[in-house]
Amino acid sequence: LENLQPEIKGLAQRLRHEVSVRGKQLGWSEKVARFHFARNMRRIVTELYVRDNCHPFKATVLLWVQVPLWLCVSLALRNCSVGALGPAGAAALLQEQFSSGGALWFTDLTAPDSTWILPVSLGLVNLLVVEV
Question: What is its main location (predicted)?
Fold first, then answer.
């Protein structure tokens, strides 16, 4: 989208000139000239988006998919870690598995990460995914 901006600006200037010349020839009012300019500008910009396959909605698709997915996974992990699932026996068993099922420096998955390695690395990985 950013790469198209200089081309769109140049096309807009040319179209503005063409519409003003045509408007003077046909005696259009300012309102009619603005209407024709806006309609033709929308058509031109849409053709550029199709040509370069870069519709603005494509830039937001990741956001509309990633945010709900992140929210659901976060809530599921929270419910698992605090034992908010099913009967008390199953919750206690799950809590016990989380408290002894870690690896490396994080042996207890119910305790906060005191080294901040996991939160920082998760943040950096998410930033990398967004930038890529």
Answer: membrane
Residue that the structure tokens 């698992």 belong to = 80
Q: What are the boundaries of each domain within the chain?
A: 3-54, 58-131
Task: Kindly report the pTM of this predicted structure.
Answer: 0.50
